[in-house]
């Protein structure tokens, strides 16, 4: 059973870099969790920046990227896969977990399920306040909106809204066209139904929470709720940005990660959540 778990967890991860297995065994591990509707490619630039200092890993979550043919999505199963992989592979090294949107919710879930395995976590734009009315609207509305995800004009419109750089547009288009309806439905429903676990405050990690200044009010309230729920969490708003921090302000995002990991003052552009 343990062997099966290890094999499943290993298969879950797209192994980004390993130059010398012996020399990297003492490097900290940095794990990036992507948002819904994209996949590990969204972290290409960050992996390239951090790969000399950390062993960087970017998994494709269930139903996304290399796993697009899988038939069902489960946020809790994603969290369990990550936990299993860390237990098998970390070997007491420092583990840094970075999540965006759906990936940030899963990061919260990992921290809540296993309080001891993450040392530093960066939670970007995580919804942790349920939207029950929207949850019940997803199922009847999806058949009407799902066909748009296959249309080039709609894909281009969404890419522009997300401020995606031109060199990743082909990744985003392919992702959109391969995303299955049942995966999308379950993903939306779990995303809208997710609430902050009571055990989150027990996590041992230092935690940084961010939200875009232009994101919806419920996202702002979610960021404050996460920050207030943990004794070692700090929360910051990113000025003049919506749900696009990792794409639109890449340099600021990277500098923020470096500063937080090194326990330095964060970039002055960020505004602390009060």
From TrEMBL:
The keyword Protein biosynthesis does not apply. One of its GO terms (molecular function) is hydrolase activity. SUPFAM superfamilies: alpha/beta-Hydrolases. Residues 31-248 form the AB hydrolase-1 domain. Signal peptide: none annotated. Keywords: Hydrolase. InterPro entries: AB_hydrolase_1, AB_hydrolase_fold, Carboxylesterase_BioH. This is Alpha/beta hydrolase. The lineage of its organism: Bacteria, Bacillati, Bacillota, Bacilli, Bacillales.
């Amino acid at each position: 059973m343990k062997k099966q778990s290890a094999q499943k967890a290993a298969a879950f991860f797209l192994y980004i870099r390993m130059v010398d297995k012996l020399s990297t065994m003492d490097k900290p591990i940095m794990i990036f969790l992507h948002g819904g509707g994209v996949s590990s490619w969204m972290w290409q630039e960050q992996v390239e920046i951090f790969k000399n200092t950390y062993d960087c890993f970017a998994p494709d979550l269930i139903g996304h990227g290399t796993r697009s043919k899988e038939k069902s999505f489960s946020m809790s199963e994603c969290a369990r896969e990550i936990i299993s992989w860390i237990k098998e592979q970390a070997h007491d090294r420092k583990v840094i977990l970075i999540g965006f949107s759906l990936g940030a919710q899963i990061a919260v879930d990992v921290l809540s399920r296993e309080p001891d395995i993450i040392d530093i976590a960066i939670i970007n734009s995580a919804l942790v306040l349920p939207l029950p009315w929207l949850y019940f609207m997803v199922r009847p509305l999806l058949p009407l909106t799902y066909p748009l995800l296959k249309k080039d004009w709609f894909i281009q419109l969404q890419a522009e809204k997300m401020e995606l750089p031109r060199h990743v547009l082909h990744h985003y288009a392919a992702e959109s066209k391969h995303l299955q309806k049942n995966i999308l439905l379950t993903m939306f429903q779990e995303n809208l139904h997710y609430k902050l676990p009571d055990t989150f405050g027990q996590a041992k990690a230092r935690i940084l929470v961010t939200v875009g200044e232009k994101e919806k009010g419920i996202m702002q309230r979610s960021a404050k709720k996460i920050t207030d729920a943990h004794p070692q969490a700090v929360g910051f708003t990113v000025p003049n940005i919506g749900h696009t921090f990792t794409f639109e302000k890449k340099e600021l995002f990277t500098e923020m990660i470096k500063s937080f990991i090194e326990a330095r003052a964060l970039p002055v552009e960020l505004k602390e959540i009060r």
